[in-house]
Structure formats: structure tokens, C-alpha cells
Q: What sequence folds into this?
């Protein structure tokens, strides 16, 4: 909690990126909404929105990078960025918490109750007489039909190892950066990108298999719902993380970072570790248990 | 004082950007963005009040005279969403933007560009939400709590409602991150945490609550979305999901949310009462700790909204006890405010009047809250107008009154002009009378057995509903009064001194009125006698 | 605990207050101020908890607001009051932390006892299944004692109310009248149904409550509780009524456009008359071999 250091804090003079971002957001969700409600042209609106968002990010980050290289950021500005990133990651944690919470709630309370355990005896007797509580399940009405689950010890295990090692590689890269060893930095950071891409590739195959062979889909009752929402949102975050890593790799190539002034690198590293930890939770609670 | 601040307006910084768009749309200035938030909040209050006008007018007499039941439900739902996410929260964020940098001696918010975005998402979010009124199938009509399965029976509006809430969430989270970073990282040297004004303290804790629960709401509505459009079964028992689970997730957000709407109010009142009591706040540390413990407790009491869903006895007991505990720290605050007044030398300018009415009327709302926490009694109260009365006392005479108090308190600092004290007092007394005519009878209606969210009722409820509607009509004049008073002040008000109120303390009163476009470009030297709590020993 | 005692003594006062409000009737009264004590032991216990809470709050209110009023008159600057400088007082702060705790315990204790009582649905003499539909109620008589029944019917808003409640119907809500249990003409606008739920006196009745489409809530204030009717889930509650009569309530969970128009009417008759009525119904039900299946919660 460093009180404001002496000397002026950099306050930018106006910016047009946020308003562009707002238009991007409204087009994206508005278009998506129309599309979901069977109004086809909606998807073009959505694409337009995403385009706006991308150009916003591109422009916004370019400006910030410029200012950073221009040496306009004091230690204190750097601290603001760090706090911003940390609390952003915390909010992400809480977002996943909602879905993990849902998983725990149905597994430990709802399903047993439907099966007549404890307080559920009446529910079971009057509504779901011959439902036997078990996990995985697609509910008393077998919503989505008979299905199989993804064995934990195949691809998921492999993916776990991939992500864990990617956590190691990025740390090595960070040390290389601190040691000012650019060659190693680029190699290990590159390795991290490759591992991220590899993970996504396996994840994609897993989904295809689930849909085509296992009849495990979003519509497969509560199991399918929790499975795809948790792994899906995680996959989304890995995608984002991989893109961020790639950007950072090019910035390293351009030599944007110095031994002791490389917040962007660390931010991405934190984010990557967060994605990593979430996956461990997923592996344990979605696949193994 | 003035000279002290005048010494740091630095060269090119002070001239405002020219042109409407550059000044307001591209702004990175915490004062301008604060103003935008407050204007937005004012507009949303009027929209929400208009919706409530439809509600109260239909409820004036038994029988359906004006609107179809479904449209009535749309009004109720949007009234709740607009008032909570559009009026109260942006109102408080606006005040935070204006005052926190001034109170801690910071040049601006920590992340000025993001600050712009957190505001400029809001108008779009509400455009999206309100546009649903004109869509096939109409707007959302499942109540602001959006319980499934009902809420996903809605027409096309479901997707847009969910996305609108996502946008509001993004906006709140970015705003909260900015506030935390500002308070933790931008304080002038010597502004220790335990010297900070209570408004800043309250916001530090509120911001944490926001970051913790808005994502959970986002998760909950996302599950609604996929249940409605992508065939998931989160809230469908047949598929192994559970409708009650939605309520648990929603209220895990929902209860902290209601404290998000009251903690900043506590902060405001803790600033105003000492200023007009000529006496330092009683028990500053206790206030800080009380705020923190209320925030903590708010995470573990959500079940009190669900006493009738059939939770196991153990759960009901736990949530009853936990909920009742909150009365303790809140009581500490109330008693401290009273003790601050006790033995002071009180003056009764408009901000003080609003603050005092806050303490009284919020406490009444708190009392009904504690009654609601008594599970057996809640079996009768739940989903009746007793609940409606409860939350309007805490939200309207609590949160909203505190925002009005804050505006009257800091207006001279913002505009450099005083307002007409007499008119402000009339505005106050008018509101104080009619708000009680409006909401107090709703306690009786609830106890007599009138359910909430109904457009029509048995004739036994006719009389009190009529009274309540009269109260509402009285209240509808107040936004116009306030607008006129402030507009007149801006045009013709007497100039305000740097320290507009004799007893007011805190850094904000050391800069000239109106506060220059850029303040504290270089950190001020903190002098304890300038602070409200500088001299309190810890 | 001493505090608790004094609060209880105030309950008497509370009862007087409601007597004035005339809440003891089966229907709400114009200008009614307070909760009905209801017609069952449970509902009276609930009412006492409510009054206890009310008087505790009134008591604290008098102290807190009293202090504020005194301060506002005694410590006015205009009266030349000079501000004190103290801003701490450990003794006072401890007192106003302890006393509220005691008061809370004094409320939580009896509340807990009532909750335990209400939760005890075992040892019931009969079971009725209640199902909420958009926008009507379904009643199944499951069993009386050991004897299973197959009587089931739907209970809808009565036609007079239904016509009157149409938008701009021009019909007068005040004109919708009916005789109540005591044979007195009373307004039943939106509180009357075609087929009331018939129940016996002096019988512990267990209700199993569920919803068919969305969440509803079954609420008759005279019985002292409401219970959510949730699709896919069964909640249970119980009651034992000693006074024959007609008791009215409403759906208490937003369930769509006609949420206001699915009232509940419970007709309580002497045990003997009830058995007679139920057996007649059973006979016709079996003759028409009405489906005994209980509706399964549909996917949304
Ligand atoms: C600003 C918003 C706000 C605040 C501050 C509160 C504060 C409290 N609320 Fe309220 N509440 C809402 C907003 C708020 N509430 C809303 C919006 C709903 C309805 C949601 C919906 O369904 O739409 C609701 C609903 C609600 C319910 C559910 C009712 C139902 O649906 O059945 C309950 C039940 O326990 C409850 C309890 C409380 C309690 C115990 C407090 C406590 O924090 C109050 C504490 C304060 C005091 C007690 C007064 C001061 C204390 C003293 C003077 C000390 C001595 C006092 C005693 C010992 C009693 N609230
Ligand atoms: C803070 C939130 C807030 C506010 C201010 C209000 C204000 C009002 N509310 Fe509402 N209300 C809710 C939150 C709020 N409400 C919620 C959450 C619900 C539940 C919805 C649901 O069931 O789903 C609800 C439900 C609700 C109902 C029950 C509907 C039903 O169950 O069917 C009714 C009925 O009378 C009602 C009436 C009113 C009235 C007449 C006002 C009047 O408008 C009060 C008069 C106030 C004003 C006219 C504004 C004065 C403002 C100023 C003078 C300017 C201030 C300046 C700035 C903010 C910058 N409200
Ligand atoms: Cu059924 Cu409300
Ligand atoms: Cu709550």
C-alpha cells in the first residue's frame, strides 16, 4: 500500500477507445441475441461487434504500450496496473466459482434428494419413484438419452500434464527475462504458446468425440450441462491466454521488456497460472471424481 | 486553505478539453465521469419512478383499469432492475468518482481510461434492457430476481435481459477495480488507512463486495441463458438440475448486493452528521470494523430470502441466526451516529436533515428486516407487501436518501455555488412526508395478507393501496423540485467558500469551490487538522 | 433473558391492538393493520413470534429515536450549545453491543422452538397433495389413515371474479359477495374458487406441495404458513384445524400473468361430514376410473 510517490502520476488526456469498445459490446451481444432468437442477420451484427472490440483492444494496447515505452509510467502507475490485473483475476475466479458451486450443489444435494436420501424421501416417492441417485447422471427423465463419460486417464490426463508443464516453461521464461537472456526467453515462452495450442487441439478432439461417439452433449442433462459449461469456459480462457502469450512473445522479440520493467509479461503469466489452477480443479472434480 | 491548493494547479492541465464529445465522451477526468454517472443515475431514477407510476396507478383501485397483468409484471421487473442497477449503484459510483480522489489527495482515479469505459458501458446496457419492452413477447416479466422456470418462459427478451446484466456486471467490476486501486495506491503521503474518511472506507469494502459477487450473478444468468437457448438442464429437475439452486446462486450475489447499496450510504451519513454536529464522529474505528463485519456477514446469510423453498430445518435455523447477527454491527453504527449528535452543537442545513431522516427511516427498515429474519414469522411475511415495505425503507429512504444528502452536501464543492436553503428544506419535508405515506401502509397491507407482484386485489386491501398511491404521486414531484433547485443554484446560486460548511473536515474542503478540473496533481501535504479523523488517536 | 420477559408481557398489548384491527376474521378487513392470529395452534405461535419481534423493535425504536429527538432539541447551536470533544466511550459501546445480543437471543429462542414444531410433519392422519399449475391448483387426496384415496380435482378462480377482473370489465369488484363460514355476506373478489379444498376438523393433515410448470406458493394466512410449490420437488407442511369454516388465501410466488388470479379456498367441516363427502367423491372417482397418476414435473 504505497502512498502516492512524489512526482506526477500520469493521467491521460481523453481517449476514444472505450466508446468504440462499448459499441463493440452492444453489437456483439445484440447480434448474438438476435441470432439466438432465430433472426439470422444477427450474426453479421455480432461479427461487426467483435471487429469493433478487436480494433479497440488493438488500439488501446498500442497506445498503452507506446506510453510505457515512452517511459511515462512511474513505479506507481505500474502498481495500479498490477492491482487491476490481480482483482480482475479474482473476479474471474468468482465467475468459475458459480459453476463449480452449481456442480457441487447438484452432486451433493439435489441428486441425492431426488434419489430419496434424507430430506428427499417425499420428492422421490411422489415424483421420481424409481430414480437411483448416481453421478454421472442426466436426471430422472434421462434428458438427452443414454451417454458415456470421458475417461479421466486418457486425453484429460495428458492435457493436465501439458498445462502443468506450460506453467513450468513460462516460469523458466520469466527467469530468463529477469536474467536478460533473450534467447532462452523466446524459446521457453514459445514452448508455452505451443503447449497452450496443443491443449486446445486435444480439447477440440475431446469435444468431437463426446458429441459423435459418447452422445455426451450440452443437452445431456445436468452432467452434460456442467461438463461443457466448465470445460467450455475454461477452454475459452485458455484460448485467450494463448493469444495473449503470442502477443507477448512478439513483444519480447521486439525487445519491449527490460529486466525489471515488464508488467505485461507478468500479467499474462499470472493469467496463465490462473487458467492452470482452474484446470486442476476441473480435472479433479469433473473428470476424476 | 485555498492558496494551499491553488499552488498546485499545474500548467496545461487545468484547461478542460473543448467540444462536447471530447469533454464528455472521451473523458478521462474523474470529476466529469462522476458527473456523467450522477446524471445517468438521475435519469434512471426518473425512468424507474415512471414504471412505479404504472404500478401504483393500477394498484390505486381494485379491478384492472389500465394495464394487462403481463405488462404489469414487466413494469415490476424493470422497475426493480432499473432502480437497483441503473439508479442506486451508478449514483454511488458517481459519488465515488467525484469524491474519493479529492478525499485521499489523488490526482485522479488510478486507471482513468478504464474509468471512462465503466461508465460508457452503462447507457448501452440499459438501452438493451429497455429495448426489450418493444420486442415480440414483451420485456422480462419474471421479477428482478428472475427465478426459473418462469423467467425463461419469456419471449425473445430473455437473451437481451441476460446480456444487459452481463454488461452491467462488466461495468461494475471495472468500476470497483478502479476504486480499490485508487484507494490502495493513490493516497497522498501521510493519508494512513485509518485516517481515511469513512465514505472512502465504505467504498473500499463495497468495491471488494462488488468484485466478489457480480461475477456470480453473471454466472447465474448465463445458466438461465443456456437453459433457455442451448438445452442445458441447470434448473430443470427432470434433467438432474434444480430450480432452487438458481435461488441459492442468485442470493449469494443478491444479499451482498443489498449491502453494496447501503455501505456507501453509511459512509455518506458518517461524513455529514459530524460536519453539522460540530463534533468528531463517535467511534471512528468501531465504524470501520462494523462496516467490515457487515460485509463479511453479508456472504453467509443469503438463505434468508429462501425460507419458504423448503430448506432442511438445520439450514433454516443457521440462516436465521446468521441473519440476525447483522443487527449487531449495524446497531453499532446507528448508536454511533446518535452519539455523534449527542453533546454536539447541531445545525440543520439540508444535508443534515436528509442524513437524520436516513438514520431514522433506515433503522425502521432494518427493524422490519430483523422481523423478516424470524423464520416462523417470515412464513407469513414472505412475498407480501411487508417485504416490499421493508426494502423500500432501506433502499429509498436508505440508499436513495443518502445519495440526495450527498448531492446537497457536496454540490457547493462541485459547482462553487450554494443552493436556496429554503427550497431544499421544502424538498426535504415534502419527501419525508410523502415517502412515509407511500411505504408505511404497505406494512399493513402485507400483514393483512396482500401478496406482492399482483396487479389486482381483494377490496379489503383497497384503502391502504389508495393511500400508498397518493404518497407515490406526492413523491413524483420531488425529482422536478430537485432538478429545479440545483439548476437554479447553478445559474444564480451564491458563490460557495472552499469550506462550504463550517464544520466540514477532509481534504476535499481544502481545494477551492468549484474544485479545479485537476486537483492534487502533486500530492498535498496532509495536515491532521484538515482531516475529519486526523487527530483521532488509535 | 430478563429483557425477553418484559417483551413477552408486552404481547398482551399486542393482542389488544389486533383485536382492534379485527384481524381474527377469516378474511382481511378494510384498514386492517396487523397479521391474523389465524385458526391453528401453529398460526397463533407464529403470530406471537411476529408480535415479539414487533415489540422488541418498537422498544429499541423508542430508545434510539427518543435519544435523537432529545439531542436535536438539547444540543442545538441556535440554543448556544457548545460541542463536547469526546469521541469514544468504551462502557457505552459495550452496553449497546451486549443488550441487542440478548434481545436477539430472546427472539431467536422461541422462534427456534416454533420452527421445530412446524417441521414435524410425521404422525399425520391424512395426506393431501397440492400441485400448482399456471394458473390453478390441483388437489389429490392421497390417504386418510391407512385407506388410500384417488380423489383429485382442479380448483380455479370462480367465474364472477374471473369476469370482473378482465381489463376494463366495467364490473364492480365490490359486488362480488359470498357467505363466509359464519353465514355473513363478505366480499370474496379474487378470493373464491369453483371447487374448494375440503378438510376435516381435529385432524393432523400433511400436505405435500409441488409445482407442475413454474414455482407457485400455497398460502392460507389463517393456517400460519406458506410453502413454495416447486416443479420437480416435494415440500411438506402440516396443519390441524379445530374450527370449521372457510379460509381463503392466494398464490404467493410470481408465476406469470395470472399469478394474482389463482386463489385458494379451504372449507373445513366436521370429521364425520368430511369422511362422508370424501367417500362419495371416491365412489364417483373410481367409477369414472379417473387417472390416479400424479403429474410429473415437466421439463421447462
Ligand atoms: C439496502 C438494502 C437492504 C438492506 C440494508 C437490508 C437489510 C436487512 N434485510 Fe433486507 N431486503 C432487501 C434489501 C435490504 N435489506 C431487499 C431488496 C429485499 C427483497 C428482495 C426481493 O425479494 O425482491 C430484502 C429482503 C429481506 C428478507 C427476505 C424477505 C422475504 O422475501 O421473505 C429478509 C429476511 O431475513 C431480510 C432481512 C434483512 C436484515 C436482517 C437486514 C439487516 O441488515 C438490518 C439491520 C439493521 C437494523 C436491525 C436496524 C439498526 C439496528 C439497531 C438499532 C440495533 C438494535 C436492533 C435489534 C437488536 C433488532 N431482507
Ligand atoms: C432503490 C431502489 C428502488 C426505488 C428508489 C424504488 C422506488 C419506488 N418503488 Fe419500488 N421496488 C424496488 C426498488 C426500488 N423502488 C425493487 C427492487 C422492487 C421489487 C421488484 C420485483 O418485485 O421484482 C420494487 C417493487 C415495487 C413495488 C411492488 C411491485 C409489485 O410487487 O408488483 C411497488 C409498489 O408500489 C414499488 C413502488 C415504488 C414507488 C412508488 C417508488 C417511488 O418511485 C419512490 C419515489 C422516488 C422518486 C420519485 C425518486 C426521487 C429521486 C430524486 C429526487 C433524485 C435523486 C437524485 C439522484 C439519484 C441523482 N416498488
Ligand atoms: Cu401461482 Cu403465483
Ligand atoms: Cu438479504
A:
Amino acid at each position: 500500500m504505497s502512498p502516492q510517490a512524489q512526482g506526477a502520476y500520469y493521467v491521460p488526456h481523453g481517449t476514444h477507445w472505450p466508446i468504440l469498445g462499448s459499441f463493440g459490446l452492444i453489437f456483439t451481444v445484440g447480434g448474438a441475441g438476435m441470432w439466438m432468437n432465430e433472426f439470422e442477420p444477427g450474426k453479421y451484427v455480432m461479427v461487426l461487434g467483435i471487429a469493433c472490440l478487436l480494433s479497440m483492444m488493438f488500439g488501446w494496447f498500442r497506445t498503452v504500450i507506446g506510453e510505457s515505452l515512452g517511459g511515462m509510467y512511474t513505479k506507481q502507475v505500474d502498481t495500479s496496473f498490477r492491482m487491476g490485473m490481480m482483482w480482475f483475476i479474482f473476479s474471474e475466479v468468482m465467475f468459475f466459482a458459480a459453476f463449480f458451486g452449481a456442480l457441487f450443489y447438484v452432486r451433493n444435494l439435489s441428486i441425492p434428494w431426488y434419489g430419496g436420501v434424507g430430506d428427499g424421501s417425499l420428492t422421490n416417492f411422489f415424483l421420481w419413484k424409481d430414480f437411483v441417485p448416481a453421478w454421472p447422471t442426466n436426471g430422472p427423465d434421462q434428458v438427452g438419452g443414454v451417454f458415456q463419460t470421458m475417461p479421466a486417464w486418457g486425453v484429460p490426463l495428458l492435457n493436465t500434464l501439458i498445462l502443468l508443464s506450460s506453467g513450468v516453461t513460462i516460469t523458466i521464461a520469466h527467469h530468463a527475462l529477469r536474467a536478460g537472456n533473450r534467447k532462452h526467453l523466446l524459446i521457453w515462452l514459445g514452448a508455452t504458446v505451443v503447449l497452450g495450442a496443443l491443449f486446445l487441439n486435444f480439447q477440440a478432439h475431446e469435444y468431437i468425440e463426446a458429441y459423435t461417439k459418447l452422445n455426451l452433449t450440452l443437452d445431456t442433462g445436468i452432467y452434460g450441462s456442467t461438463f461443457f459449461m466448465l470445460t467450455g469456459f475454461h477452454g475459452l480462457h485458455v484460448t485467450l491466454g494463448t493469444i495473449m502469450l503470442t502477443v507477448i512473445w512478439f513483444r519480447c522479440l521486439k525487445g519491449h521488456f527490460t529486466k525489471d520493467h515488464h508488467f505485461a509479461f507478468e500479467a499474462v503469466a499470472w493469467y496463465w497460472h490462473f487458467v492452470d489452477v482452474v484446470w486442476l480443479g476441473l480435472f479433479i472434480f469433473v473428470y476424476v471424481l | 486553505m485555498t492558496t494551499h491548493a491553488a499552488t498546485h494547479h499545474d500548467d496545461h492541465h487545468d484547461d478542460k478539453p473543448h467540444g462536447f464529445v471530447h469533454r464528455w465522451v472521451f473523458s478521462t477526468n474523474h470529476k466529469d465521469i462522476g458527473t456523467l454517472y450522477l446524471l445517468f443515475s438521475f435519469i434512471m431514477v426518473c425512468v424507474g419512478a415512471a414504471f412505479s407510476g404504472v404500478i401504483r396507478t393500477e394498484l390505486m383501485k381494485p379491478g384492472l383499469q389500465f394495464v394487462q397483468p403481463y405488462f404489469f409484471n414487466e413494469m415490476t421487473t424493470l422497475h426493480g432492475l432499473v432502480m437497483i442497477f441503473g439508479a442506486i449503484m451508478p449514483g454511488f459510483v458517481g459519488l465515488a468518482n467525484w469524491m474519493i480522489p479529492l478525499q485521499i489527495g489523488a490526482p485522479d482515479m488510478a486507471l482513468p481510461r478504464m474509468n471512462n469505459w465503466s461508465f460508457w458501458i452503462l447507457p448501452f446496457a440499459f438501452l438493451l434492457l429497455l429495448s426489450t419492452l418493444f420486442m415480440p413477447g414483451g420485456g422480462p416479466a419474471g421479477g428482478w430476481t428472475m427465478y426459473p422456470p418462469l423467467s425463461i418462459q419469456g419471449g425473445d427478451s430473455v437473451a437481451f435481459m441476460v446480456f444487459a446484466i452481463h454488461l452491467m456486471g462488466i461495468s461494475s467490476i471495472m468500476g470497483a477495480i478502479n476504486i480499490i486501486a485508487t484507494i490502495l495506491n493513490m493516497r497522498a503521503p501521510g493519508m494512513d488507512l485509518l485516517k481515511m474518511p469513512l465514505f472512502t472506507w465504505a467504498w473500499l469494502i463495497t468495491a471488494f463486495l462488488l468484485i466478489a459477487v457480480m461475477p456470480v450473478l453473471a454466472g447465474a444468468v448465463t445458466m438461465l441463458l443456456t437453459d433457455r437457448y442451448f438445452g442445458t438442464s441447470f434448473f430443470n429437475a427432470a434433467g438432474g438440475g434444480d430450480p432452487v439452486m438458481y435461488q441459492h446462486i442468485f442470493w449469494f450475489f443478491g444479499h451482498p448486493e443489498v449491502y453494496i447499496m447501503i455501505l456507501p450510504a453509511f459512509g455518506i451519513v458518517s461524513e455529514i452528521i459530524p460536519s453539522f454536529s460540530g463534533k468528531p464522529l463517535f467511534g471512528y474505528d468501531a465504524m470501520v470494523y462494523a462496516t467490515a463485519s457487515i460485509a463479511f456477514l453479508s456472504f453467509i446469510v443469503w438463505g434468508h430470502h429462501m425460507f419458504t423453498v423448503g430448506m432442511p430445518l438445520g439450514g433454516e435455523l443457521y440462516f436465521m441466526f446468521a441473519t440476525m447477527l447483522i443487527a449487531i454491527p449495524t446497531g453499532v453504527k446507528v448508536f454511533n451516529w446518535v452519539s455523534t449528535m449527542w453533546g454536539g452543537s447541531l445545525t440543520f442545513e439540508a444535508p443534515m436533515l436528509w442524513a437524520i431522516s436516513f438514520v431514522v427511516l433506515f433503522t425502521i427498515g432494518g427493524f422490519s428486516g430483523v422481523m423478516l429474519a424470524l423464520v416462523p414469522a417470515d412464513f407469513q411475511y414472505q412475498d407480501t407487501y411487508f417485504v416490499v415495505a421493508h426494502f423500500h425503507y432501506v433502499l429509498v429512504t436508505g440508499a436513495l436518501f443518502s445519495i440526495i444528502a450527498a448531492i446537497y452536501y457536496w454540490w457547493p464543492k462541485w459547482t462553487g455555488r450554494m443552493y436556496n436553503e429554503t427550497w431544499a428544506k421544502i424538498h426535504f419535508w415534502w419527501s419525508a412526508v410523502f415517502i412515509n405515506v407511500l411505504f408505511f401502509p404497505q406494512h399493513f397491507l402485507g400483514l393483512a395478507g396482500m401478496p406482492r407482484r399482483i396487479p389486482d386485489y381483494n377490496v379489503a386491501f383497497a384503502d391502504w393501496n389508495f393511500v400508498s398511491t397518493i404518497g407515490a404521486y406526492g413523491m413524483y414531484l420531488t425529482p422536478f423540485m430537485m432538478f429545479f433547485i440545483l439548476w437554479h443554484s447553478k445559474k444564480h446560486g451564491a458563490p460557495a467558500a472552499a469550506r462550504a460548511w463550517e464544520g466540514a473536515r477532509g481534504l476535499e474542503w481544502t481545494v477551492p469551490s468549484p474544485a479545479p478540473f485537476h486537483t492534487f496533481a502533486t500530492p498535498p501535504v496532509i495536515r491532521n487538522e484538515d482531516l475529519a479523523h486526523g487527530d483521532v488517536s488509535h | 433473558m430478563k429483557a425477553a420477559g418484559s417483551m413477552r408481557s408486552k404481547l398482551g398489548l399486542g393482542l389488544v391492538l389486533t383485536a382492534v384491527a379485527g384481524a381474527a376474521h377469516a378474511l382481511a378487513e378494510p384498514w386492517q393493520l396487523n397479521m391474523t392470529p389465524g385458526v391453528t395452534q401453529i398460526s397463533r405461535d407464529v403470530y406471537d413470534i411476529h408480535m415479539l419481534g414487533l415489540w422488541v423493535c418498537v422498544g429499541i425504536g423508542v430508545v434510539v429515536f427518543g435519544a435523537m429527538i432529545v439531542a436535536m432539541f438539547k444540543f442545538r447551536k441556535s440554543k448556544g450549545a457548545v460541542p463536547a470533544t469526546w469521541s469514544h466511550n468504551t462502557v457505552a459501546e459495550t452496553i449497546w453491543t451486549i443488550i441487542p445480543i440478548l434481545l436477539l437471543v430472546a427472539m431467536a429462542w422461541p422462534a427456534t422452538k416454533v420452527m421445530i414444531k412446524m417441521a414435524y410433519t410425521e404422525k399425520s392422519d391424512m395426506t393431501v397433495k397440492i400441485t400448482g399449475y399456471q394458473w390453478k391448483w390441483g388437489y389429490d387426496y392421497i390417504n386418510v389413515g391407512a385407506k388410500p384415496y384417488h380423489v383429485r380435482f382442479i380448483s380455479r378462480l370462480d367465474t364472477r371474479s374471473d369476469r370482473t377482473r378482465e381489463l376494463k370489465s366495467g364490473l364492480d369488484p365490490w359486488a362480488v359477495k359470498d357467505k363466509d363460514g359464519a353465514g355473513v355476506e363478505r366480499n370474496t373478489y379474487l378470493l373464491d374458487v369453483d371447487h374448494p379444498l375440503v378438510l376435516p376438523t381435529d385432524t393432523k393433515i400433511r400436505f405435500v406441495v409441488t409445482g407442475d410448470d413454474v414455482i407457485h406458493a400455497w398460502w392460507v394466512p389463517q393456517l400460519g404458513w406458506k410453502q413454495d410449490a416447486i416443479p420437480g420437488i416435494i415440500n411438506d407442511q402440516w396443519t390441524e384445524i379445530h374450527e370449521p369454516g372457510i379460509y381463503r388465501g392466494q398464490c404467493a410466488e410470481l408465476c406469470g400473468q395470472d399469478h394474482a388470479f389463482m386463489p385458494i379456498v379451504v372449507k373445513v367441516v366436521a370429521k364425520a361430514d368430511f369422511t362422508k363427502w370424501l367417500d362419495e367423491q371416491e365412489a364417483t372417482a373410481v367409477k369414472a376410473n379417473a387417472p390416479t397418476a400424479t403429474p410429473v414435473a415437466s421439463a421447462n
User: Anything to note?
Assistant: The CA atoms of residues 419 and 488 of chain B lie 7 Å apart. Confidence is low (pLDDT under 50) at residues 1-13 of chain B. The radius of gyration of chain B is 23 Å. Chain B touches chain A through 82 residues (CB under 8 Å).
